[in-house]
Amino acid sequence: MIFMIDDDEDALEIYAMLIEKSGYSDLFVTYSSGVEALEALKELHSEGKKFPRYILLDLNMPELGGVDFVEKYEELYYPQYAQTEIVILTSSVREKDNEEALQYDAVSRFISKPLSKERLVEMLSESASKS
């Protein structure tokens, strides 16, 4: 399973349409805010269900930004769910953003937007094989 968290509703819709055609749509869940995604993770945790393999996280969001989400995630769920990789997605070209995001243990990489369909399908395939 992959969680995608992005405040850009158009981007979420485009990725969801791409995934629907890939055969992995049951593994792809979108959230328009970090708060919403944390609630979903809380529910998975309390029910003893499997956490997502990847969390694709927009860095620049209102209310709860990407870095704030990662801090909260690490406080609540890391290292218990260390198999979940947080992948930061951003349109930022500032090296400082990259360095700040990668200082967290749960963050595995930093990818510039837009995420290619091929890379997204590859991640879904990896996620399916580890289910």
Question: How is this fold's topology laid out?
Answer:
Blueprint: E1 2-5, H1 9-20, E2 28-31, H2 34-46, E3 54-58, H3 66-77, E4 85-90, H4 95-102, E5 107-112, H5 117-129
Parallel strand pairs: 1-2, 1-3, 3-4, 4-5
Helix pairs in contact: 2-3
Which key features would you list for this structure?
alpha/beta, about 130 residues, about 45% helix, five-stranded parallel sheet, 5 helices, Rossmann fold
Can you walk through the features of this model?
- This protein is an alpha/beta fold.
- It has a single domain, classed as Response regulator (Rossmann fold, 3-Layer(aba) Sandwich).
- The chain is built from 5 helices and 5 strands, in the order E-H-E-H-E-H-E-H-E-H.
- The chain has helices at residues 9-20, 34-46, 66-77, 95-102, 117-129; strands at 2-5, 28-31, 54-58, 85-90, 107-112.
- Strands 2-1-3-4-5 form a 5-stranded parallel β-sheet, sandwiched between helices.
- Helix 3 links the parallel strand 3 (54-58) and strand 4.
- It is globular, with a radius of gyration of 14 Å.
